[in-house]
Write a structure and sequence with these properties.
Blueprint (H helix, E strand, L loop, with lengths): L8 E3 L6 E3 L3 E2 L12 H13 L4 E3 L8 H12 L5 E6 L1 E4 L2 E7 L3 H15 L4 E6 L8 H13 L3 E7 L3 H8 L6 E5 L11 H8 L2 E5 L30 H9 L2 H10 L3 H16 L12 H9 L7 H7 L23
Parallel strand pairs: 3-4, 4-5, 5-8, 8-9, 9-10, 10-11
Antiparallel strand pairs: 1-2, 6-7
């Protein structure tokens, strides 16, 4: 497939790879946000690629392998135009759907990469992330194992997710890290404390996930209209008084959107894209959607430039957000917040 719309590109890691400045997060196709129309989801992937998206992001844990399997035909059909990222490190239990553990052992990593390659039907993974750090396992050891996968030709570049600035530096000293992925949005800016400066210093690309605050920044109803089984029903920012307080924070976002003829989601994404110039590093957000209309809307935001006054108006929002990102903050790196 040939791209019909030029999306600006940026660097992904030190090997010369270029990707569109906005990527695509595929997680929601398989679970967490209610049922999916798989035909529309596939059409959405095709539309994203057509509009210039090249970085497509998945993980072995999404749908317990379903997400990688679903992407298989799409990736294989468009392999030369796609930079495929997947992840390892989060483990689940079939008998306990709510369980989330971590495993960074060398044996697990080696088995996980082979399993992902089989599900995806490809010979090499373009970008392989440690999804979460396992407590007690030095990140330097994990980087060493990932470096072995690069040497073996199973992985082209490696990344880390939800780490601290110190962990990022320690891993990069063992093997070059191409990208770091963490939540970063108008609602979540703690990464700017140590992780973003470390990435900028080391020349590492930052890949913000949930750049729309898991949909909160689109202006959609926080909780009442979420389907049963939607993971956001368990997240503190979407529940009780927190939901009402956070919804009130969207007023300046809505005002800017109305004045500019944009949607709140486009303003929120434009803010994330602006972080690249503010902090001096490549930034490639990966919003997820299962709608062709929404993916086109999201991609259009990549070329929206907010004014200094608009950025100043949005500046206070993150400091006023009520509630943690997760109910169990042990699921993030110690010191990450």
């Amino acid at each position: 497939m040939t791209n019909t719309q030029a999306l600006p590109t940026t660097a992904l890691g030190p090997d010369g790879t270029r990707v569109g400045v906005q990527g695509y997060g595929a997680m929601g196709i398989s679970e967490f946000y209610g049922d999916s129309d798989l035909a529309e989801s596939r059409a959405t992937l095709e539309r994203a690629l057509e509009l210039g998206v090249t970085l497509f992001d998945t993980a072995d844990v999404y749908g317990a392998g379903h997400n990688e399997e679903f992407l298989r035909d799409f990736v294989r059909a468009n392999r030369e135009n796609i930079v495929l990222a997947t992840k390892f490190g989060i483990v689940r239990k079939a008998e306990d759907p709510a369980y989330r553990g971590t495993d960074n052992s060398p044996e697990y990593i080696r088995s996980a990469v082979d399993a992902s390659l089989r599900r995806l039907g490809i010979d090499v993974i373009d970008l392989y992330y440690m999804h979460r750090k396992q407590p007690g396992v030095p990140v330097e050891d994990t980087a060493g194992v990932l470096g072995e996968l690069v040497a073996a030709g199973k992985v082209k570049q490696i990344g880390l997710s939800e780490v601290t600035g110190a962990e990022l530096r320690a891993a990069h000293a063992v093997h070059p890290i191409a990208a770091v992925q963490s939540e970063w949005s108008l609602f979540s800016r703690d990464v700017e404390n140590t992780v973003v400066p470390a990435a900028a210093d080391l020349g590492i690309t930052f890949v913000p996930y949930s750049p729309l605050g898991r949909g909160f920044l689109t202006g959609a109803a926080p909780i009442g209209e979420l389907p049963e089984g939607d993971i956001r029903r368990t997240m503190p920012r979407f529940t009780g008084d927190n939901a009402d307080r956070n919804a009130a924070l969207l007023a300046p976002l809505r005002a800017i959107a109305e004045a500019r003829g944009l949607t709140p989601a486009q303003v929120a994404l434009a803010w994330v894209h602006a972080r690249s110039a503010v902090h001096g590093l490549p930034v490639v957000p990966i919003p997820g959607t299962r709608s062709r209309t929404r993916v086109a809307e999201n991609i259009a935001a990549a070329t929206v430039e907010l004014t200094a006054d608009e950025l100043a108006t949005l500046e206070p929002i993150a400091g006023q957000v009520a509630g943690n990102r997760y109910a169990d903050m042990n699921f993030t790196a110690v010191g990450r917040e």
